[in-house]
Task: structure prediction
Amino acid sequence: MKIFAITLLAGLSLCANSALAQQAAAPAGDIENGKKHYTTDGCYQCHGTLGNGAALTGPKLANTELPFDAFLMQLRHPANDMPPYEAKIISDKTVADIYAYMKSLPKSPDAKSLPLLTGMGVK
Amino acid sequence: MGKKTSDQAGLDRRGFLTGVAVAGGAGLSGPAQAQSNQTRMAQAQTAPAPAARPKAPLPTAAQTAAENETPAHVEALTTEKTGSDFMVDVCKTLNIDFLASCPGSTFRALQESFINYGQNKKPEWLTCLHEEVSVGMAHGYAKVAGKPMAAMLHGTVGTQHAAMGIYNAYCDRVPMILFTASAGPVEDRRPGVEWMHSVQDGAATVRDFIKWDDYPWSLQSFAESTVRGYALACAEPPGPILITADGKLQESELSKQEEAKLRIPKLTRGTQTVGDPAALKEAAKMLVAAENPVILVDRYARSQQGVDDLVRLAELLQAPVVDKQSRMNFPSQHYLYQNARGGVLVAQADCILSLEPVDLFGQLNRVRDQIERTWRSTSKPTAKVISLSTHDLLMKANYQDFQRYSAADLAITADAQATMPYLIEAVEREIGDRKSAFAARGQKMRDAQKAFAARAHADGALGWDSSPISGARMFAELWNQVKNEDWAFMSPNNYSGNWQHRLWPIEKHYQFIGNSGGSGVGYEPVAALGAALAHREVGGRLPIAIVGDGNFNMAPSVMWTAAHHKIPFLMIIQNNRAYHQEVMHIQRMANRHNRGIESGVIGTEITNPNIDYAGLARSYGAVGIGPISDPKELGEAIKKGVAAVKAGEPVLIDVIMQPRG
Result:
């Protein structure tokens, strides 16, 4: 029952920095297919059903600012403890679909507009 | 007449046998008695005519047995006092408030003595529906009450049921007084079940993970061993102890003459081990000299005094505290509570003080979960490590809860809470003109702490309106309903996104009780039940447990025990419809093997059909609410639940939540 202390965000950031210089345009993805694979391929297990992320398992993916190359690299050669997803499991095309789905998700509300959230812990 | 007399003599012989059979049968059970009567009736209907003087039939097996039994007039059928009464006298000297148990015939005399002779007070007998509940209840209770309660376990099978809960308590270093029983000497055992529930060495099943045990063979020995066991259970590091109450000792008559010879020793609890002054002076020098000290704290505080003392030390040094959360050790909103930067602080530290580490190696190293497992140190090679711990005082060979060996530069084997005032004194003596440097360090911590809340709010906004409901949303809705109550969490936050510690002000020792110790699944509901009992005794508190659905399924009957004994609490089922930790393990293996993870939910998901947890709670006599999958409905559901808890009810709210908080 060991907890996966995945600190993926740091790894993703590193990937992003190195990838920015050679950033390529993301391939056009099929959002609906990406939504389907986000579930069937288990992304939601660690990153939440809406790509919202979870503190102990995986960072936010919705509206990711990572370039596609870095997103793909993280799947193929994960930093930290994320399981690897090789092309045999998820093709580049499917990854592009998932990426498109993540990019399509509505942005989270600004925390300042959520008094219930910002009031947590405050009497 | 002579012939008649002779015949009558023969009949008398039969009559004598019959009479013995009836008298002897008084001690038989109902079905056995009925069979005996039927046999006699059949013999009477088929008896030959007296005139024929046939050969006497051989006696039946029942008749032979009856002839050999003790006649009724010499058999003692009742008694006024038994050994089990004396055992209760012993327990009453220990000021044990509660004893939890699932019934078992091996301790039938003891149970009867507790509830009648002992008037079911101190301890009060609590009914549980599984031995794992009894033990887990004692686990949670001790963490809040600060003293042990007892659990009674049926011989062999009950101890086996209880084993995992005992292991959790042992790993978590929590005291409890366990009793089991055996049916007594072989010649006294009834055939069948009493043999199945008898054992030469009842403690063997659990000896690897209890602190001490005994099978006393006299009442005097029972008294001494039970008092000794209680003292040992409470001595740091604490743990479970087990006493086997022999069936013969329990059920045998205790004459006034024998009783007059018995003595119950007084309970003397030893003082706790304190670090030696020379070592504390050395530790103080190292801490005061450090530019970037960090305090790692794990299974440290057992009372508010421990929390307050650690705050004094941290403020004195203006040193950050990283809390591993096996206990409530440090106020979660204090500016020196720096869990959010724990990794960075350890990496930058030049001096690390580790208080009661469960896993010192794991605090200072990282092992990657890959095919080729690699590990690396997470601290500087030059960092000096001080451990202050009872870790080495209770260690056994077989179970590996002691973790990987890791040597500190200065290892002080002592109880950290008892030692803390002396360490503070030593630091005060060494501090000299370092206070201004410490103040600058403290300001950095204040600045960092301000950013923690902003980051938590940003994280909490993610998936705010999602269904399944996010952890942040659930905790925010919960806070909104209980913020003016004297709330207390009774569950760990491993799977809850750590929201309690990120944003709630956990300040009092009883507001958080840490984790299971042994990671045995099922701890959450049972420990919550015991903790809630301890909170009930104090009064005025609102006990809250966030329980995973997988955890709850190990012991749903806690709801019945809570309803039956009127133990109020609010239990929120964090329902992700899976053993989700295991989902991720299988996913990891499937990816590693390049087979895809579409089948990874086989054997880990708890769906098809979904379980009606609220209905289950109601069936046990508790209040059940839900399932709630719309976040907009959650606040009202919690409001209703809180009202019911305040009215004295145990409440379960089933909340359909994200896989992880």
